[in-house]
Amino acid sequence: MPEPFKDSLFRRDHIEELAAHLSRLYPPFDAAAFLARVFDSAWDGEALKERMRHLTLALREHLPPDYRAALDVLKQTAPLLREHGFLLISFSDFVEVYGQHDWDASLPAFEWFTQFMSAEFAVRPFIAQDAPRMMAQMLAWSRHDSDQVRRLSSEGCRPRLPWAMALPDFKRDPSPILPVLENLKDDPSETVRRSVANNLNDIAKDNPDVVVDVLRRWNSDATPERQWIIRHALRSLVKAGHTEALALLGFESGAAVAVNNFSLNTDRVHMGEKLAFTFEVESRSDAPQNLVVDYVVYFQKANGSLAPKVFKLAQRTIQPGETLRFQKRHAFQPITTRVYYAGDHALAVKINGTEYGEQHFTLVMGSG
C-alpha cells in the first residue's frame, strides 16, 4: 500500500534529524521530549496543514522563549535540512504564528526560509495586517537575486492562492500587486513566470478588464516566454468566452462554424466509468479561423440545479470548407475538489466562447 501523502512530506526520520540538529545548535533542546510532543496521540489523525501547525507548536515549546533567539536557531537549521523540503514549511509558519509583532525580524526570516521552502502561505497574515508595508517589501523582493524570493513576491500576494488565507482587499482592488508582476514579467526563472501567470489568472476572476489591459500592453514585442505568461494568465477568461481575451490570443468570438454529429456513447454512466463523446466542427467561413475547442460538463449540485465546468480540449486552425473531428473520454472519478451527485447531467461543446449543442445523461452512483 502506498505511503500516505502527509507521511511522505512529514517523515519521522526527517523530524528526528531536525531534532538532532536543534540539539546540537541549541544544547537545552530536549530532543526526546520534542519527539514525544510531535508524535503524540493527535499526530496520526491530522491532515497535512494540521501537521504543519502541530510541528510549529512543538518547536515553540522547545526553542528559546525569546522570539528572535528562536528564529536564530531555525535560520541556522534550515540549510541543514535543505533536502527535506516540505518539512521546513513549519519554519515560515513559526514566523506567521509568533512573529507578527516583530516585523523587523520576521521579514528577513521569510526572505531566508523561502529559499528552502516557500513562505507563500505565511506572508499573507502580514499582508492583511499592513498591506502597504508588506507590498513594499514584496516589491523589493521582486528584485532579489534568489528566484525563490522573487517567486514569493508574486505567489504570496495571489488573491486566490489555493489552500491559503483569502485576500479580499486584493480581490476588490488588485492594483498593489501589479508593480510586482511588472518587475517579474520577463524573469529568467520559469518558476517565477508561472507564478506571475497564476497571479494574473487569479486577478482575472474578479477584475478581467484589468488583466486584459495589462496583457495587451505586455503583448507588444513579447518574447516567447512572455507570450507563454499571457496565454496561461488568460486561461480562465478564454474558458469563459471573454471576447477581448480571445481576441488578444488571436481567437475571434462567434466563430463561423457548425457542430455536427455530436453524440455520447451512453445516456447512463456509472461513477468510476468514462463517458465517451464525439463531434465534428465544420467551417462556414471563406477564411482560415483559429479555434479554441473546449467542452462543458454540467454537474448536478445538491439542490438539483446544474453547474458548468469547462475542460480544455484543443486549439486548432480550421481551413475554409474543412471539417475537424474530435473524440474524448471524460472520467467520473472521485476527486477532492468536487462532490458528485447522482442524476441528470449535461455536456456541451464550446468553441471560442460559444456553446454548441447539449447532450443530457444520467450519472449513477455505485454499480447498480
Detailed description of the structure:
The chain is α+β, with helices and mostly antiparallel strands. 43% of the residues lie in helices and 20% in strands. It contains 17 helices and eight strands. The chain has helices at residues 5-9, 12-25, 31-38, 48-62, 67-77, 89-98, 103-113, 124-129, 131-141, 147-155, 168-172, 178-184, 190-204, 208-218, 224-233, 235-240, 243-248; strands spanning 257-264, 268-270, 274-283, 289-300, 306-318, 323-331, 343-351, 354-364. The protein has a five-stranded mixed beta sheet. The chain has a three-stranded antiparallel beta sheet with strand order 1-3-6, with no helix packed on it. It is globular. The chain starts with a helix and ends with a strand. The model has no long low-confidence stretch (mean pLDDT 94).
Spell out the key features of this protein:
alpha+beta, Immunoglobulin-like, globular
The CATH topology of the largest domain is given as Serine Threonine Protein Phosphatase 5, Tetratricopeptide repeat
Number of domains: 2
For the record, the CATH architecture of the largest domain stands as Alpha Horseshoe
The radius of gyration over CA amounts to 25 Å
Strands in their spatial order, largest beta sheet:
2-8-7-4-5
Could you give the count of β-strands? 8
| Major sheet description | 5 strands, mixed
